[in-house]
Amino acid sequence: xxxxxxxxxxxxxxRVVGHDVRDLIYKRCAVTELADNYEPENPFLHxxxxxxxxxxxxxxxxxxxxxxxxxxxxxxxxxxxxRPDEQLQFLERYVLEGAS
Length: 100
Prior knowledge:
By secondary structure, this protein is an all-alpha fold. It is built from six helices and no strands. The longest helix has 23 residues, at 44-66.
């Protein structure tokens, strides 16, 4: 486990990444693979954008549902250091590596 993951774990990451977040990550991986392998006109890019929006919203909601005020403050301080695309890549790695 790298330092970033360990620090977020200490601040409640496993409670933030629940079943619903994991489901969205798996869907995002599947749609990303489809989009990467589809060339002429890619209908999957719009779907991927929607999934990204849903995932970001679900993570934000999960942070507020599962973490106390102080935990939220600590978690969000570190979480916001990453760009949105880095956050999505981090979540994908966290879920997929944890699933294997």
